[in-house]
Amino acid sequence: MTSSVYGANPIPEVNVSPEAISRGRVIAVLSLTVFLALAAYYFVGVDEGMTSVFGKTMVIHEWVHDSRHFLGFPCH
Amino acid sequence: MEIRAILRGALAGALAGVLAFAFSRIFAEPVINKAIDYESGRDAILAELNKAAGRAVAPDGPEIFSRSIQSTVGIATGLILFSAAMGALVAVAYVVLHGRFQVRPRNLVWMIAGFGFLGVFVLPYVKYPANPPAIGHTFTITTRGHLYLAMVGCSLVLLGLAVHLARRLSRRYTMTTSVVLSGIAFLVVYGVLIGLLPSLGDLSANVDAAHQFGYARAATETPQPIVNILSRSLVIDGKSIAPGQIVYPGFDADVLWKFRWYSLLNQLLIWTTIALAFGALLERFLNGGSGRTKRDRAERPTVDEPVPAS
C-alpha cells in the first residue's frame, strides 16, 4: 500500500484482511447491538409494567401482551 | 466479519421468532384464551361480591387492542423482536469469545445459545415460572419485575463464573473433573440464590391483600378459589352465599401446567433454532461459501469476501 514511499527497498505487501475494521469500531458496533437488543428485550418484556419510558400509556404492554406472558416475563 | 456475524445472528433469531409464532398460534393461544375466560368470570364475580359487601370494586384493565390483534400480530411482534434480539446477542457473544476456546465456530455458537437458554430463561423460570393471563397481581408488578430481572442477571453472571471456574480448574484437573466441580459449585450458589429470593405469595403487598375477596395466603399469586370470607351471608343475584362457601373455583391446574410446559418448549424452540441457523449461516460465511475441510473452518477471514462499506 505505502510501498512506493520507500523507493528501492519496498516493504512487502502486507496482507491486511479486507474484513478487518478497527478495534474502536468493533467496540462501537458491539455496544450498539447490545443496546438495541436490550432495548428490544425491555420493550417486549418490561415496559409499561414495572417501569415505563413513554409515560403511563398501556399501548406497548397491550400490543405485546400475549408474548410477554408466553416468554415468561412477569405480567398481569 | 463482526457486522456480518451480527446480522446473521439477528436473522437466525428472526427465523426462530417466526417458528415460535407458529408454535404459539397452535399451542399457546387456546390456553391463553381459557385463562382470559377464567379471568373475566373471576373479575365479574369479584365485582359483585365486593359490591354486595360494600367494599371497593377494582377497575377493569384497559382494552386498547382486541383479542384478535393481541393473539396474532401482537404476539408475533413480541416473539420475533425478542428472538431477533437474542440472536443478535448470541452473535455478539460469539464475536467476543471466538478464538478463546478450541472448538469449531458452530459448536461455540451452540454452547453460547445453550447458555443463553439457561441464563435468560430456564434458571429464572425455575424460581419465577411463566404465568398465563389471570395470574399476577397488578399491585405487585414492580416487585415482580425487579425479582425476575434480578434472577435473569444473576443466572447469567453465575453461568459465566461457572465457565470461568471450570477453565481455571482445568489447568490442574481433567476436563471432566473441572466441569463436574464447577457444576456443583454453580448449583450450590444457585440453590442459595433461589432460596434467598422471596416466593411471590410472601411479598408484603400480597400478605396485606390476603383479607380481600379472592385473595388468600398462598405461596404464589395463582388465583385461589373465591370464598365468602365474611361471617355473614351475602346475596348475589338473589342467591344467598353462606360464610366460607366457594363462589368461584381457583385457577385450573391443567391450564397452568399446559401454559408453562408450552412456554418452556417455545423457548427451547427459539434457542435451538438460533443455535442451528446461526451456526450454519456463520460457518457458511466463514468458509466463504467454498468447500473447505473441517480443520480449516477457523474464523479466519476469507480474502474473497467483499469489503464492507466503511
Automatic annotation (TrEMBL), chain A:
UniProtKB keywords: Membrane, Transmembrane, Transmembrane helix
Taxonomic source organism: Streptantibioticus parmotrematis
Pfam family, one: CbtB
Protein name: CbtB-domain containing protein
Transmembrane segments: 26-44
TrEMBL record, chain B:
Highest taxon of the lineage: Bacteria
Listed InterPro entries: CbtA_put
One Pfam family this sequence matches: CbtA
Keyword Transmembrane helix tagged: yes
Signal peptide extent: none
Alphabetical keyword list: Membrane, Transmembrane, Transmembrane helix
Region (Disordered) location: 291-310
TM region(s), chain numbering: 75-96, 108-126, 146-166, 178-197, 268-286
Protein name: CbtA family protein
